[in-house]
TrEMBL record:
This is Type II secretion system protein K. PANTHER family: TYPE II SECRETION SYSTEM PROTEIN K (PTHR38831), TYPE II SECRETION SYSTEM PROTEIN K-RELATED (PTHR38831:SF1). It comes from Roseateles albus. Residues 227-271 form the T2SS protein K second SAM-like domain. NCBIfam families: T2SS_GspK (NF037980). InterPro entries: GspK, T2SSK_SAM-like_2nd. It holds the Pfam family T2SSK. Belongs to the GSP K family.
Length: 331
């Protein structure tokens, strides 16, 4: 009888230990889930907060470009041609500014709020060669192909890069025209996606290093656009025309620092004889701009790049994407 009582006590003790273990396990699981929920909520709040702050860089760009458009309108009323150059206000970067005071819930205790710093810059998208010129006609215009080949060489990209870009780009943007006719599902599967910017040329198999080399020289805009000679780098100007050389392009770049081109015809003073400059290939003003916004919020750094189009006083956002910072590898 005594042994039976002791065995019952042992079973009861074991049952109690199992119950305590289950309760502790459930309690820890509930605490972990609550902790994860708090983390997710904090991350979502930070993401929404960062998105609103980065919207401020777009608002800043709209204000600057709208004021520049008003100045151009006044110039046209005076009988002058509107020009865009690197000496205007829009080309001055926005230095990193602290925004913690505006983010804090209580302005009297702003130092207790998160550390937030915003910076940004505006770049002329028409200072680069527009790959949209490669998509006109049933065949690639010979001049446009030579321009891209020159720029690939200037960037130090691998041989065959120009041919790869042309082939994949024309294949991607031929989808809409071919979709109306009969085509097999296998053919459609081989057609690459349509990129909207240079970074998405990685879909064609270009390496990150190649894209980084080509980014300052190339762009992909919704419509064909001329290159702005007041903002383009010398490599783009030299590659844009047959008979143009890098030295002549450098003279133009140096001269426009003190006196930007007021009309397209002024560029003839810097080009070699025989170089034909047309309004379809070159201009002295721009309608497309790239807005770069950078937010440093506590330990997080977020960057965003947007493509905007200026139509008179209206600023239209065409593309907006987060920029993933490239990790630097130590040698």
């Amino acid at each position: 009888m005594r042994r039976r009582f002791e065995s019952q006590q042992g079973a009861a003790l074991l049952t109690a230990m199992i119950i305590v273990t289950l309760v502790a396990t459930l309690a820890s699981a509930m605490v972990w889930r609550q902790y994860r929920a708090v983390q997710i909520e904090a991350a979502e709040r930070a993401r929404a907060q960062a998105s609103w702050i980065l919207q401020g860089s777009l608002d800043w760009a709209r204000l600057i470009l709208r004021e520049d458009a008003r100045a151009d309108r006044d110039a046209q009323r005076r009988g002058e041609q509107a020009v865009d150059h690197l000496g205007e206000v829009w080309s001055v970067p926005l230095a990193e500014a602290r925004l913690s005071t505006f983010l804090a819930a209580d302005k009297n205790t702003a130092d207790d709020g998160p550390e937030a710093f915003l910076s940004g810059s505006l770049q002329d998208a028409q200072s680069r060669y527009n790959l949209r010129h490669l998509l006109s006609g049933k065949v690639v215009p010979p001049l446009e192909q030579k321009v891209l080949e020159r720029l690939v060489v200037s960037a130090g990209a691998a041989p065959g890069t120009a041919a790869l870009i042309i082939s994949k780009l024309r294949s991607a943007y031929a989808v809409k025209a071919e979709s109306e006719g009969p085509s097999s599902s296998g053919d459609k599967a081989e057609i690459p996606l349509q990129p909207k910017n240079i970074a998405q040329l990685a879909w064609f198999g270009l390496s990150a290093d190649t894209i980084e080399r080509l980014s300052p020289l190339l762009t992909l805009l919704p419509i064909p656009t001329p290159v702005n000679l007041n903002t383009a780098p010398r490599e783009v100007i030299a590659a844009l025309f047959d008979g143009m050389d890098l030295a002549s392009a450098e003279r133009l770049v140096q001269a426009r620092q003190s006196k930007p081109l007021s009309k397209l015809e002024d560029s003839a003073d810097f080009f070699p004889k025989g170089v034909v400059v047309t309004a379809e290939r070159a201009s002295v003003n721009s309608a497309f701009f790239i807005v770069n916004g950078r937010l440093r919020l506590e330990e997080r750094v977020l960057e965003e790049r947007s493509l905007v189009q200026r139509r008179d006083l209206e600023i239209i956002v065409l593309d907006r994407q987060r920029v993933v910072p490239r990790l630097e590898t130590k040698p």
